[in-house]
Write a structure and sequence with these properties.
The protein is of the alpha+beta class. 44% of the residues lie in helices and 14% in strands.
């Protein structure tokens, strides 16, 4: 996991892959955190990338881990 706090706005919506890059984790790790209830996600109604994680959730997760 990266040691530098992500530069995100609270309302940013990131697909799982982008959230993984921002946090410096593998996308499978993000998926495991979602299944375990550690990270919350939202669902898009249309489009290929259905799940997204809000910027505020990524920042909350980062602050809790650091």
């Amino acid at each position: 996991m990266t040691t530098r706090r992500p530069d995100l706005r609270p309302d940013d919506r990131l697909p799982i892959g982008e959230a993984a890059k921002v946090l410096g984790l593998h996308r499978n790790t993000i998926t495991r955190y979602i299944k375990a209830g550690v990270l919350k996600y939202g669902l898009r109604r249309h489009g290929r990338h259905a799940k997204f994680i809000l910027g505020r959730e990524i920042l909350r997760f980062f602050d809790a881990k650091m």
